[in-house]
What does this fold into?
Amino acid sequence: MRGLVLKDLLLMIKMNKKMIAVMNLLVIAIAFLGENDIYAVMSSVFCSLSIGMHLMMTMTYDGRNTWKQYELTLPVTKYQVIASKYLTCLVLAPISAAGTVIIYAARYAVYHSFSWEQLGGCVVTAVLLPVLWCSVCLAFAQWLGYTSVQYVRAVSTLLMIILINKMPENAAFVVKYFVQNPVLLMITVLAVTLAAYFASVTGYARKE
It folds into this structure.
């Protein structure tokens, strides 16, 4: 299983670096749309999602290159195969959390405003969100095919941009509520992640 994690990490490193640059520019742009703290939260969320999206691309590459045919010859179970994707997410969690810390440090240098409570909530979100994001997309991939991940990524990116450009007050309240209640966020993510894990295992076994 460790080899599967290493495979995904190496694949991510060799992927399209232009896309990574564009994602980073979007994160920076969102962070400095204004002094309102909601932009710090949204920038942190988008940073976490971009990391999750990058990992999702490895699923697409797996599908294009018929990786599963080779994977079935390896001495790993279906549970280990799916769990390897989750482990890859956890390996990337420190990078996601570090991105949030950098965002808040940069905003403090510009706007001179800072909230430890909000930073703590965003760090928790930065760790959990890539796992949630990838686990749901992995379930889609196992049941609807790896091509479906591309559509999920495109639609989700579009919705995120629309949400940022036309942020209603109630949406801002929801985001802040989850940031200020990390325990509730953790319980929600855990429930969805477990459900997605077993759905992914079932979908994977269905095509063996």
